[in-house]
Amino acid sequence: MENIISAGDFIYFDNQATTPVDKHVSARMIPYLQELYGNSHSNDHYIGWKSKQAVDAARSSVATFINADADEIVFTSGATEANNLAILGTLPTLKKAGKSKIIVSTFEHKCVLESAKAAKAQGIEVAFLHPKSNGIIAPVDLRTLIDETVGLVSIMTVNNEIGTVQPIEELCRISHDVGALFHTDAVQAAIFIDLDVTNSGVDFLSLSAHKIYGPKGIGCLYIKRNVQNKITPIIYGGGQEAGLRSGTLPTMLCVGFGEACRLAKEGREKNIKHLKKVSIFFMDTLKKKYPRAVLNGDSDNRHPGNLNIQFPGIDSHSLLQMLQPIVAASTGSACNTTIPEPSYVLRAIGLTEEEAGNSIRFSFGLQNNEQQVTNAVHYIVDAIHSIQESSALDDLLSDETVVLQGDRKSSVG
User: DSSP per residue over 116-169, as a string?
Assistant: First the structure.
């Protein structure tokens, strides 16, 4: 592989980490960077009014995307902040209501797990719900675990590493049966699932723009109107976002988020078809050249652009390094610590440490095509063979060293 490549040669299969900004999204944003740069909270002049109009329109677009009302959308810096607000912002109300416990799954995004950890430090008991080996939460397991001491349940709609889709509507109903609030991190679902908060009944839902071809640094928390009095802010200041999230809104990012939601809603069926086509072609092509590849997670109920694949006996970090700078993929969430370690998500569904360490997430996007897949599989299989040859040579040299040491001992004797 060449050390320097052109943008056209680079193959990006890490779209669940982030997506490129759609050209229509960036075009909508530019005027609010260069011309209509007013503060949307400035009420005394024209340019401030124009900025507020743009933010209001973006808020309506995001709300329409999930079948909510505009006043149920709270803009945040991203899904991490939204998830923190949903979990930590409810604690005062839960405590007043005598609710002493929250439930999260063991393979939630790190920001949910860390928020739960912070809640525990504030005296809240945290119970963990385990997925089945196929990466899906069984509603019966939640029903067994939950009781009337539970104030909040948080289960992600689509897992960010293995792409499995959870039965959110049923999990929400079970939670409501005991009077618990229900939150879902729907970040990875937004590109292909018709998110309808009215039908699902969820109380809180988190989104992030940069997973649907929008800009980084903007997301939201949907808060159902009848539970807005049950959440308190975790950021204080000027009282923006109905007092739930203070801070000056970035107009250009809000506009980009709104446009990304509009495009995702309009193109959903086309997007699903494309992602399925690319991922199926990838798996078929890879299996022909490397039959030992194993898919992690359920084969049907999953993100159409996600393939989390195990390469038995091949260290995932070594393989990814061999693929640089041509092919981009990942061993797990980009939001995790930079310390290399086997994925906790894969360990949660029963994989051994070695199996988890042999797994790579390939996540496909709207810009990917079959030619890129063909080229990538060629590079991947070549890299695997190189690793295997290197390992075989190391074993041979190790055996020769043992033999030489044995001869030396014999000659001494």
Answer: HHHHHHTT-EEEEEPP-TTS---HHHHHHH--TTEEEEE--SB-TTT-BBP-HH
Confidence (pLDDT) at 401: 54
Cis amide bond preceding 325, omega within 30? yes
Instruction: Please state whether beta strands 204-208 and 219-223 pair in parallel, antiparallel, or not at all (unpaired).
Output: antiparallel
Q: Is 261 a catalytic residue?
A: no
CA dihedral angle for residue 325, residue 371, residue 295, residue 307, rounded to 10 degrees = 70
Phi-psi label, residue 204: left if phi above 0, alpha if psi -120 to 50, beta otherwise? beta
Which pLDDT belongs to residue 338? 53
Collect the ranges in the chain with pLDDT lower than 50. 1-5, 402-403, 410-413
3-state secondary structure of 350: coil
Whether the CB-CB separation of 38 and 354 falls below 8 Å is answered with no
Sheet of strand 101-105: strand arrangement: 73-76, 219-223, 204-208, 181-185, 150-154, 101-105, 125-129
105 and 160 Cβ atoms separated by less than 8 Å:
no
Rounded distance between C-alpha atoms, residue 180 and residue 254, angstroms: 31
Burial of 217 (0-12, 13-18, 19+ CB in 10 A): middle
Distance CA 96, CA 117 (A): 20
Residue 96 is encoded by which pair of tokens? 């007043």
Task: Find the length of the chain.
Answer: 413
Helix 251-266 / helix 268-289 crossing angle, nearest 10 deg:
80
Domains of the chain: 11-20+268-391 (3.90.1150.10), 23-266 (3.40.640.10)
Query: Residue 112 is which amino acid?
Result: V
